[in-house]
Amino acid sequence: MYRLGDKIVYPMHGAGVIESVEEKEVLGEKKKYFIIKMPVNEMKLMIPVDNVENIGVRKIISNSEVKEVFDILKEDSSLNKMNWNKRYRANMDRMKSGDIFEVARIVRSLTFRDNEKGLSTGEKKMLSNAKQILISELILAEDSSSEEIETRINKIISEN
């Protein structure tokens, strides 16, 4: 189980720090919630304590795994031949997994595609969300700032 101060990832939302545990009544039912402070946009989320396993909450990656994320961003990317609708659904499934390495692959491939051919509105939004999820976890894993991480990501991707 997670404790105050733990750095965790909530799939589709990103990484944050457990700031408190509060009991709230929702729809006539009292439940305990983790209050998560997100480093990007200073957002706070409430996650039901007894539901963290079901929704895929996990601890953030280690320093050695940070290098692996940046290595994925450095990999060569080629245009996926799938139509945008199938590609979007496949990428959405990968994002829902909460796997940081899959999120990094999405950022890499969508950025490459955007530079080569452009993206649909939905894919632009997905790229933006995936980048924010990636940045939020790397900020906490490296104890860095949003600007530093985003600059590193953009620099790595632009070099390919």
In CATH, the homologous superfamily of the largest domain goes by the name CarD-like, C-terminal domain
Structural class: alpha+beta
The ordered string of helix (H) and strand (E) elements is EEEEEHHHHH
Distance between the termini: 40 Å
Considering DSSP H and I runs of 4 or more, what fraction of the residues is helical? 40-55%
| CATH fold group of the largest domain | Methane Monooxygenase Hydroxylase, Chain G, domain 1
Which residues form runs of ≥5 with pLDDT under 50? none
Global geometry: globular
Reported CATH architecture of the largest domain = Up-down Bundle
Q: Strand arrangement, largest sheet?
A: 4-3-2-1-5
Task: Count helical runs.
Answer: 5
Rg measurement, Å: 17 Å
The percent range for strand residues is 15-25%
CATH class identity of the largest domain = Mainly Alpha
Number of separate strands:
5
How many structural domains are formed by the residues? 2
Topology readout:
Blueprint: E1 7-10, E2 14-26, E3 29-37, E4 44-48, E5 58-59, H1 63-74, H2 84-96, H3 100-116, H4 121-142, H5 146-158
Antiparallel strand pairs: 1-2, 1-5, 2-3, 3-4
List keywords for this structure.
21% strand, Methane Monooxygenase Hydroxylase, Chain G, domain 1, 5 helices, Thrombin, subunit H, 160 residues, alpha+beta, 5 strands, 2 domains
Q: What does the model show?
A:
- The protein is globular, with a radius of gyration of 17 Å.
- The protein is α+β, with helices and mostly antiparallel strands and 160 residues long.
- It folds into 2 domains: 7-59, Thrombin, subunit H, CATH 2.40.10.170; 63-158, Methane Monooxygenase Hydroxylase, Chain G, domain 1 (Up-down Bundle).
- The chain is built from 5 helices and 5 strands, in the order E-E-E-E-E-H-H-H-H-H.
- A hairpin with a 2-residue loop joins strand 2 and strand 3 (29-37).
- The protein has a 5-stranded antiparallel sheet.
- The mean pLDDT is 92.
- Helix 1 packs parallel to helix 3.
